[in-house]
Amino acid sequence: MGVIDKAALILNALEAGPTSLAQLVALTKISRPTVHRLAQALVHHRLVGKDIHGRFVLGGRLVELASAAGEDRLIAAAGPLLLQLRDTTGESTQVFRRQGAYRVCVASAERPVGLRDTIPVGTQLSMKAGSAAQVLLAWEDHERLLDGLHGARFTPTILAGVRRRGWAQSLGEREPGVASVSAPVRGPSGRVIAAVSMSGPIERLSRQPGRTHQEVVVQTANALSEALRKTGD
């Protein structure tokens, strides 16, 4: 395996969020000295960065390169799918990515009239509450899962249910009176890289929003995953 192949494995391993050196070794199956050397080289070129805990994260240079390429595949593919989901459910819809300790709204389609849950693109929300946070955490490895559960509004049992069903729901976790349903978006490697969500007032969505909306939310997330797989071929 060449140097570029190994560097690509490291970048792919960082797709799901902050990763320690030991986790990189376990995920890539590359020797610890080699992973450390390559990761530091990627840091030097800003393709990889470090968070406040010293864990490796994807670097700012990747954002610049994506912009230079003319589009972000996730955002480009999400637009029409979120509009369709909004029109089907009658509620606001979003796509969230994890960035360190937060989840960031990278695409949205708001309900045009009436009471709605407004989350503008660029909004940073906690990873400790909400159905999208549940989805972005549920498929993490054991160490990240334990770290993410510290101080969270949801429990290990709830996340086990998310993994079993393939979708999450929340009632007033992030904000009183707001309900949401979310499902995972997977990158070409199969890892969860984002969450598709729909959200609105509990009065409209009821106290079991997943019962009504999980099927269409999961379909939208699967369609977005498939679009990313095709662009990655």
Automatic annotation (TrEMBL):
Domain HTH iclR-type: from-to ranges: 1-60
SUPFAM superfamilies listed in its UniProt record: GAF domain-like, Winged helix' DNA-binding domain
Annotated keywords: DNA-binding, Transcription, Transcription regulation
Keyword DNA-binding: yes
Domain IclR-ED: 61-230
Domain of life: Bacteria
InterPro entries (UniProt xref): GAF-like_dom_sf (IPR029016), HTH_MetabolicPath_Reg (IPR050707), Tscrpt_reg_IclR_C (IPR014757), Tscrpt_reg_IclR_N (IPR005471), WH-like_DNA-bd_sf (IPR036388), WH_DNA-bd_sf (IPR036390)
Record has Membrane as a keyword: no
Protein name in the entry: IclR family transcriptional regulator NdgR
Protein's organism: Paeniglutamicibacter antarcticus
